[in-house]
Amino acid sequence: MFIIYVFRASGVVYIGRDNVTDEVVAVKQVNLDEQPQLSVIVRELEAMSLLTHTNVIENKASYLVNRTLWIVMEYLDGKHQRQLQF
């Protein structure tokens, strides 16, 4: 069940709940027809899938349905990613 969404430059981000783990997740919907640089998205997904670190958002799953990419990620509560201090 999705409860909120936010428009971002590369798509819409929904907040949902994993039906299996009951964990809150972020789900990003990206229309590939509207992306001028598909290679950037592919590289970001590859990096997120390979890295396991507390300062990197965990990529839980990705699904391609027609020309729409759905990316299920760890949900960060409270702050926009750009506001985090490392």
UniProtKB/TrEMBL annotation:
Domain Protein kinase: 1-86
Endpoints of the signal sequence: none
EC number: 2.7.11.1
Record flagged with keyword Repressor: no
Gene Ontology MF terms: ATP binding; protein serine/threonine kinase activity
A family per Pfam: Pkinase
Protein name: non-specific serine/threonine protein kinase
Native organism taxonomy: Eukaryota, Metazoa, Spiralia, Lophotrochozoa, Bryozoa
